[in-house]
């Protein structure tokens, strides 16, 4: 299952799992995937490969709703839930001195509480089937560094929380369930394009700070996502995989 699977990095990772031969269910707060063309492409891939691709609308901040949707997925899926990529998240930029409490809570509720709800629901299913599994959460390089020229303290804190959450859950649920984080750098998405439009100098700064001289693209996280989900990372647990 992939949370935040209706767009951006999430839908790219969903495609990677299909390409690796997995049945995939995407959940997102959007009623349908953001790009019908991309979803049609993934649907065709699933059909030609004899795999299942499903979609559910879900607000991950609602624990009861998360549990219900994950139970429905488990009942419908042709195979047990063995993998979760928790990639749902939001961003809100504001100077810390002016940040409104409601916006702070919204970011934390989605990025930290919502991710915990998703991870908990998936782990419960894995334990019920007694098959184990792998859980990965999308954190961020911002969990461990301070960004230049990007003011989003609650976001950074919410992602740092995921890194420690993964370590703690990895210890608690081992050896059956592995829990890790994947921390991207700047990714070229609709969200970051909007941030650059608001401040054109950011692109030059972000690309200049990276040894490769550019921002990453969503497809470049397919390999790391499949690695963390598969037995290729069978001895990787409580680890933050930084791709920045």
Topology:
Elements: E1 2-3, H1 8-19, E2 24-28, H2 36-49, E3 53-57, H3 63-76, E4 83-86, H4 101-129, E5 133-138, H5 153-173, E6 177-184, H6 190-198, H7 201-209, H8 222-229, E7 240-243
Parallel strand pairs: 1-2, 1-4, 2-3, 4-5, 5-6, 6-7
Helix pairs in contact: 1-2, 1-8, 3-4, 4-5
Structure description:
The protein has 244 residues and is an alpha/beta fold. It has one domain: 3-Layer(aba) Sandwich (Rossmann fold), CATH 3.40.50.720. 48% of the residues lie in helices and 14% in strands. The protein has eight helices and seven strands. A seven-stranded parallel beta sheet has the order 3-2-1-4-5-6-7, with helices on both faces.
Main features:
244 residues, seven-stranded parallel β-sheet, 8 helices, globular, Sc_DH/Rdtase_CS, SDR_fam
Short description, anyone?
Keywords: NADP, Oxidoreductase. InterPro entries: NAD(P)-bd_dom_sf, Sc_DH/Rdtase_CS, SDR_fam. With 244 residues, the chain is α/β, with parallel strands linked by helices.
Global Rg: 17 Å
The separation of the N and C termini measures: 24 Å
Major sheet summary line: 7 strands, parallel
Q: CATH superfamily name?
A: NAD(P)-binding Rossmann-like Domain
Query: What's the architecture, going by CATH?
Result: 3-Layer(aba) Sandwich
Question: Helix and strand string, N-terminal first?
Answer: EHEHEHEHEHEHHHE
The CATH topology comes to Rossmann fold
What is the structural class?
alpha/beta
Would you tell me the overall average pLDDT?
A: 95
How big a fraction of the residues is strand?
Answer: 5-15%
């Amino acid at each position: 299952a992939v949370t935040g699977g209706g767009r951006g990095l999430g839908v790219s990772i969903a495609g990677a799992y299909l390409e690796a031969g997995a049945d995939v269910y995407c959940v997102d707060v959007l009623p349908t995937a953001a790009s019908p063309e991309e979803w049609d492409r993934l649907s065709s891939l699933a059909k030609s490969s004899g795999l299942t691709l499903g979609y559910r609308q879900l607000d991950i901040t609602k624990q009861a709703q998360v549990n219900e949707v994950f139970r429905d997925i488990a009942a419908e899926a042709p195979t047990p839930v063995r993998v979760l990529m928790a990639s749902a998240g939001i961003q809100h930029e504001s100077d810390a001195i002016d940040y409104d409490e409601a916006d702070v809570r919204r970011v934390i509720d989605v990025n930290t509480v919502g991710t915990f709800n998703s991870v908990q629901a998936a782990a419960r299913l894995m334990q019920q089937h007694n098959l184990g599994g792998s859980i990965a959460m999308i954190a961020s390089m911002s969990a461990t560094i301070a960004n230049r020229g990007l003011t989003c303290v609650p976001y950074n804190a919410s992602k740092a929380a995921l890194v420690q959450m993964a370590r703690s859950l990895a210890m608690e649920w081992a050896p059956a369930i592995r829990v890790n984080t994947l921390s991207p750098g700047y990714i070229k998405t609709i969200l970051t394009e909007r941030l650059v439009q608001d401040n054109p100098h950011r692109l030059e700064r972000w690309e200049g700070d990276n040894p490769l001289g550019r921002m990453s693209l969503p497809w470049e996280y397919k390999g790391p996502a499949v690695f963390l989900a598969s037995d290729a990372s069978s001895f990787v647990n409580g680890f933050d995989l930084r791709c920045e």
